[in-house]
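Tip: read the tokens left to right.
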């Protein structure tokens, strides 16, 4: 019995040390993220740094990234993590609803909970606990009079398309979008033709169609490439056979070399990058082209063209996206 007590005391000590080490790691990681030190090492995000440089699984990297971001917003999270009141596996749920304004009331509600129980608290605290299944078309009065056709316009500079997506639960999001009266009529017609599909299924099918078309254009592999290709006089034009060749050679993923010497490998928002920019006389040939993710394409352009020039063109990017 004495031995069992002693062993148990030893386990309790080890557990305290484990929690303490994790808390220390997360505090250091939050500081690392605040300095954007991952960008200095050539990574596109903190997530990529954790996954590629520290060798964490994607799941572990995601947990630690979310925790590091939460600690920056709500430093009070660290003590409950250290003393075990807050279980690390609930951190993603906690981050969904706890912020700098509500943490004093909201954070203690997660103490001692399992991940599953934490998810229930999120639903109770979240502004949209139950995802509505109805769709409402509301008329919005604008400068154009009713019935006039308005050409689609690009979103104003600085506006973010993704801002219109609000997470409701882990699986459901709400898309809030202002549409033209013309779009409303088309949607009504589609509803009549396909009464079997819900509105979100209709929209998803439309997005799938456009996506397939755009991805095909972007590069990549058509089943039967055209045999003859006319050379283009526009140096910005990248012929389809060149796109296909570069895409195939690079395996359809970002070729940027990160600090560890490996390639980035991201498949997010891929673009074809001119190693020597067109502005500096580079050609649209396979030897001068490579596949890069959006973050590394921007980084490459900054390195070659200089920050001052790029700041005039850069689009603000959501922080911390994996
Ligand atoms: Zn990349």
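Filled-in amino acids:
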């Amino acid at each position: 019995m004495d031995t069992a007590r002693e062993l148990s005391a030893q386990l309790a000590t080890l557990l305290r040390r484990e929690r303490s080490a994790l808390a220390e790691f997360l505090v250091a990681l939050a500081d690392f993220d605040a300095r954007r030190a991952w960008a200095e090492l050539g990574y596109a995000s903190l997530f990529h740094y954790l996954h590629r440089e520290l060798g964490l699984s994607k799941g572990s990297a995601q947990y630690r990234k979310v925790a590091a971001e939460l600690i920056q917003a709500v430093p009070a999270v660290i003590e409950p993590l250290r003393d075990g009141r807050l279980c690390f596996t609930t951190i993603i749920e906690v981050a969904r609803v706890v912020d700098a304004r509500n943490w004093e009331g909201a954070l203690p509600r997660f103490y001692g909970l399992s991940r599953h129980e934490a998810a229930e608290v999120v639903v109770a605290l979240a502004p949209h606990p139950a995802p509505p299944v109805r769709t409402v078309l509301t008329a919005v009065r604008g400068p154009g009079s009713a019935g006039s056709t308005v050409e689609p316009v690009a979103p104003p500079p600085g506006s973010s398309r993704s801002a219109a997506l609000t997470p409701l639960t882990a699986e459901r999001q709400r898309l809030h979008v202002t549409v033209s009266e013309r779009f409303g009529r088309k949607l009504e017609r589609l509803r009549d033709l396909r009464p079997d599909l819900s509105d979100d299924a209709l929209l998803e099918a439309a997005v799938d169609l456009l996506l397939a078309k755009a991805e095909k254009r972007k590069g990549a592999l058509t089943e039967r490439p055209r045999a003859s290709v006319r050379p283009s006089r526009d140096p910005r034009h990248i012929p389809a056979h060149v796109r296909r060749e570069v895409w195939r050679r690079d395996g359809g993923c970002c070729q940027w070399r990160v600090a560890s010497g490996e390639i980035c490998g991201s498949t997010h928002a891929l673009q074809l990058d001119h190693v020597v920019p067109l502005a500096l006389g580079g050609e649209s040939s396979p030897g001068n082209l490579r596949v890069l993710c959006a973050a590394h394409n921007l980084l490459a352009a900054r390195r070659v063209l200089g920050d001052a020039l790029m700041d005039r063109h850069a689009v603000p990017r959501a922080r911390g996206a994996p």
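Residues 240-311 form a domain with the DNA Binding (I), subunit A fold (CATH 1.10.30). The two ends are 50 Å apart (CA to CA).
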